[in-house]
Amino acid sequence: MAIVVVGSVAFDTIQSPFGKAEKILGGSATYFSLAASYFTDVRIVAVVGEDFGPEYESVLRQRGVNLDGLQRAAGLTFHWGGEYGENVNEAKTHFTHLNVFEKFQPQIPQQYLDSQFLFLANIDPILQAQVRRQMRNVRMVGGDTMNFWINGKRPELLATLKLVDLLLINDTEAKMLAGEANLLRAANKVMAMGPKALVIKHGEYGATIFFGDRKFGIGHHPFRAPALPLDEVRDPTGAGDSFAGGFMGYIASQEELNREVLKRAMFYGGVMGSFAVERFGPERLQNLTREEIDARFEVFRELTHLD
Amino acid sequence: MAIVVVGSVAFDTIQSPFGKAEKILGGSATYFSLAASYFTDVRIVAVVGEDFGPEYESVLRQRGVNLDGLQRAAGLTFHWGGEYGENVNEAKTHFTHLNVFEKFQPQIPQQYLDSQFLFLANIDPILQAQVRRQMRNVRMVGGDTMNFWINGKRPELLATLKLVDLLLINDTEAKMLAGEANLLRAANKVMAMGPKALVIKHGEYGATIFFGDRKFGIGHHPFRAPALPLDEVRDPTGAGDSFAGGFMGYIASQEELNREVLKRAMFYGGVMGSFAVERFGPERLQNLTREEIDARFEVFRELTHLD
Question: Where are the domains of chain A?
Fold first, then answer.
């Protein structure tokens, strides 16, 4: 079943201990779409500028991503520049040129309206809510956010959270949003704001899904999926969006939404995140096969499986 | 099969957001022994002072812990005082009175020499090596250390690591010991220093066991056990030692040492750590039943288990 993602399609200039890449394809909607494309049909809503040439577009097209909702605006594409040190969990931002993204007004193409799944990647919560309201027929809405909105647009974010079924954020964001240092209590506070379930991403330690009530009919015990200990994280950019793509993509590929599907989705999220960081930019997500993905799924499973 | 532990038996004065406890029973050997006592016979080697009354001793005796190796010295017992804030992962030390621990010279009672397992809790690596050399018949040696020795007695610690089969440390210690920010590369560097396997504890995210070679005959893929998301961590003191006690205790209770045993041991380590932090001091570890432990083992299993 098709999934619509609204977010950024952008350029990144990235430095890490493993090298440097100038103006490569990036953005939350890009990583999400590529990761999800191995599981289901993906439809993008985003904006790019005049410098976004066909060579970038073809990366997405080759994975079958629908670009009907990719707007073109006068000006330059959103461009982020940053650097990772030895501790790959911390990025140092060099510059953030919002460019055409600053005036982004998401428009949902008519032919997207039958989509059953929606992912609101990390953009202004006001825009997230606008998109959510345009997509009346969706079965499930996933969302992301970040410290910038948690601190800077809290009332707007709280309004948006009421429209989200499943929120995916990291530990720091969850604790900041809840104003609570304990992870489980933070999770419960965040779910009381609206989401029925909450995925908290722990970086190299994996991710945990918490269930706030029984609306999914899948019990309330949390579930934790591991991350693979990797000896080289070349570029962590997009790991969280790739996780979300694998997670939501797998869910959208299944007929039923039950606890076992969500558990497997957590593993597929981790798998796609682990592929993303192996190369600069989204390179590794462009030429995978479902066999490679499922082989790594088994490695993840073996990592925590008791006979 | 019996396990000998050498470490500290001490008093702790602890403050956390949940309250305060004055001069309660503590110490690495105490937490280790209580946790391991649910799985196997435990024998302590430690030193206490004249203020260590029979009421403290009886806590250990009631769990069947052998105290033949508990020396009594003139002076006061080791006493640590500290505080945990909202972030329970960071302790603020108020005082460290080493007292009789400062001149501790471990003596292994004759009747301990048939023990097949040895755990070198976090003490001076010179003493760890002395004890190791006295225990010639052991099948497996586990060990712990901390930043204080990694920075302050590195050559001595490196000598001791050559005598340790299985080292249990946390992320920060592993990265500091290896001089390497990547966890997997750090693990491999630490194992090159001696240990055949390395357990890296991730606090609330669980723990990972890495295998350096095939001497255990159990393959080389790492294995990760979760930690239970808890809504109240009343007192994190002793969590790591309780993990080690559950881990080593379970191993010592098994006839064979294979990969499946080590995997289950990782889960039992997490289970005992999760009990330890629920109450101040080692209170929760005093009156458990094996049924309660196995019930929580199943909760841990369910937390990551894919059908």
Answer: 3-298
Report in angstroms the alpha-carbon separations of A163 from A134, A141, A171, A286. Answer: 12, 8, 21, 32
The C-alpha atoms of residue A153 and residue B16 are separated, in whole angstroms, by 33
pLDDT in tens, A46-70: 999 999 999 999 999 999 999 999 9
Pairing assessment for the beta strands A166-170 and A207-211 based on DSSP bridges: unpaired
ipTM summary value = 0.86
Element (H, E) at A118: strand A117-120
pLDDT at A14 over 80: yes
The angle at the Cα of B8, spanning B4 to B9, to the nearest 5 degrees, equals: 95
Please tell me the distance from the alpha carbon of residue B31 to that of residue B281, in angstroms, as a whole number.
9
**CA atoms in the 13 A half-sphere facing the CB of A288:** 26
Among B248, B228, B208, residue whose Cα is nearest residue B38: B248
At B138, phi and psi to the nearest 5? -70, 150
- Give me the average pLDDT of each 10-residue run along chain B (307 residues): 97 93 97 98 98 96 98 97 84 94 96 97 96 93 96 97 96 96 93 95 94 63 89 90 98 92 96 95 96 96 89
Tell me the three state secondary structure of residue B201: strand
Structure tokens of A277? 């960081």
Report the residue of chain B nearest A206, measured CA to CA: B205
Residue A184 and residue B230: Cβ atoms within 8 Å? yes
Determine whether the interchain pair A205/B205 forms a contact, defined as Cβ–Cβ distance below 8 Å: yes
**Portion 65-104 of B in contact with A at CB < 8 A:** 86-88
Task: Identify the residue whose tokens are 């976090």.
Answer: B122
* Angle at CA of residue B183, ends B177 and B186, nearest 5°: 35
- C-alpha–C-alpha distance, residues A43 and A115, integer Å: 9
Q: Touching check for B231 and chain A: CB below 8 Å?
A: yes
- Whether A229 and chain B come into contact, CB under 8 Å, resolves to yes
Question: Do residue A221 and residue B302 have CB atoms under 8 angstroms apart?
Answer: yes
Whole-angstrom Cα distance, residue B99 to residue A292? 59
The DSSP 8-state label assigned to residue B266 in this structure reads: H
CB atoms B232 and A182 under 8 Å: yes
**Residue A23 in contact with partner chain B when CB distance is under 8 A:** no
* CATH number, domain A3-298: 3.40.1190.20
Q: State how far the Cα of A34 lies from the Cα of A42, in Å rounded to an integer.
A: 9
Q: Are strands A207-211 and A197-201 parallel, antiparallel or unpaired?
A: antiparallel
pTM of the entire predicted model: 0.92
Say if CB B39 and CB B90 are below 8 A apart: no
B3-304: CATH topology: UDP-N-acetylmuramoyl-L-alanine:D-glutamate ligase (3.40.1190)
Which residue type sits at A189? K
